[in-house]
Amino acid sequence: MIRFSLPSNRPERPSKEIYYLVISLVSCLYITILASIAIAKPATKALMVTKTLSGQIDMCLSCHDDKPDKAHGRKVIGCFSCHLGNPLAGTPKEAHKGMVLNPGDLRVAQNTCGQEGCHVEQVKHVKNTLMATNRGIISTLQYYWKEIKDNNGTLTVEKLLENPYNQKGLATDYFRKLCATCHLWLPKDTLPGFLSEKGGGCTACHYTPKDKVPRQHKGKHPLITKQIPMENCVRCHNRSGRIGLSYQGLYESEGYGAPFEDGEFSSLQLEDGRFIQKIHPDIHYEKGLVCIDCHNQKELMGDGRQRSHLYQQVEIRCETCHGGQKHLEKLLKEQKSNKKYPTLNNLVQDKKGQILLKGKIDNKNHPLQPLLENRCRNPQHKRLSCQACHSTWVPQCYGCHVRYDKGKTQLDKLSLQETFGLWQEYRSYMRYESPILGVLQDNKHPRGEIVVLVPG
After folding, report:
1. Between 293 and 377, where is the model more confident?
2. 276 near 270, Cβ under 8 Å?
3. Between the N and C ends of the chain, which has fewer C-beta atoms within 10 Å?
4. Domain regions of the chain by residue span
5. How far is CA 373 from the centre of its chain?
């Protein structure tokens, strides 16, 4: 008998080998997917989209969490508004193209701090201040060397930077090698040692030194401030008239390390090695006032006009604060009138009607004593400046002279290159007692105002 078998509809059972192979493939695929997700996580963070309060998209904020200050908060204006670069890029390399490290640098400030909607006017003005131009120093040196007819020359640091060989002569060479460390055009961190802290344009003033940063401020970004600490001012204002030192009662001594301490040199030294002694400070320093408490924005950042000398740019005088109640009421009214450049912007009035000066850093209210009518207002003292009577001492450097060796090289602080011509300064002696008086004639005082002279 022949038997026929019909095909079954039920599939054959797979072998164990095929079963294990399928399980392995599925497992590998699952692990690969998990690994891909893990690797993609950092990229997901880098591509996170963040909007600033102005509505701008800034992807920089997904990586950078530093907080400069409230006004320049990371979510207020973002990173790119100040540091430029490409805020829409997905990779650090692309994002950092065209970025500037220091937005306050005067070479780029018109595109950063001075962009529309920010500090347009201030950036234009500050470039014309003496702190940026150094006109007074340059023209006075040129006049000493008889390279110009008077000390009101128009040569500036900016012009010297535009053309390194502009006004080539002994006076400008002296300036470039000995004086050109105290101007706002100097890029920060370009000169050696303590000089690296100088310059930086807007940043020279508006950043907080590391030792002054509050503990609650975290992050690598420098803390930006309007409350400019006195240390930032004294960083430059400690030579020539040495006003920053004298204000604190620091007298630059002869340089021999005296008075000695246990047979060794004195430990009271400045960063550049100069020895100092502590003597009587200015009364305003004793009361806790700092530079910005008196010197206003117009003096410090200018009004757009270039001037040749410091006394032409400074408008705050002793009479400004000590002119009496009626005068202070007039200044307070001006302050409240929203005038563009008020003489003072930190006057307050107490419940008794007395007008006080509020410290911009210590927030204390300081009383303002009026001038003595029978002395300060005496007609015979009309030509006397307040300093002529009230300065108990000023630093005086005598016998200053320089030696020039054209066969040796020295660092040019503008070109940052070693060039031929070595300058060395010397002096005979220093003293601080019995300030010398002289006569300053200008349009405001045609008969001449009797002022204190500071040799050196």
Report:
1. 293
2. yes
3. N
4. 68-234, 324-370
5. 40
Whether 137 and 144 have beta carbons less than 8 Å apart is answered as no
| CA dist., res. 440 & res. 310, Å (int) | 13
CA nearest to 112, candidates 88, 137, 77, 145: 77
- Provide the 8-state DSSP code for 24: H
Query: 352-404: per-residue pLDDT in tens?
Result: 999 999 999 999 999 999 998 888 888 888 899 999 999 999 999 888 889 99
Query: What local confidence, expressed as pLDDT, does residue 181 receive?
Result: 93
Cβ-based neighbours of 84, under 8 Å, separated by 6 or more: 98, 99, 100, 103, 108, 111, 112
How many CA atoms does the CB half-sphere of 59 hold within 13 Å?
18
Token reading at 327: 């005068």
**Contact (Cβ atoms closer than 8 angstroms) between residue 246 and residue 220:** no
pLDDT single digits (tens) 332-343: 999 999 888 899
DSSP 3-state assignment of 277?
strand
Helix (H, G, I), strand (E, B) or coil at 33: helix
Interval 48-76: pLDDT, tens: 677 777 778 888 888 888 778 888 887 78
The DSSP secondary-structure symbol of 127 reads T
Task: Please answer whether residues 202 and 123 qualify as being in contact, where contact means their C-beta atoms are separated by less than 8 angstroms.
Answer: yes
pTM of the full structure: 0.83
For the chain, the first-to-last Cα distance in angstroms comes to 136
Distance CA 206, CA 70 (A): 14
The span from the CA of 251 to the CA of 456, in Å, is 13
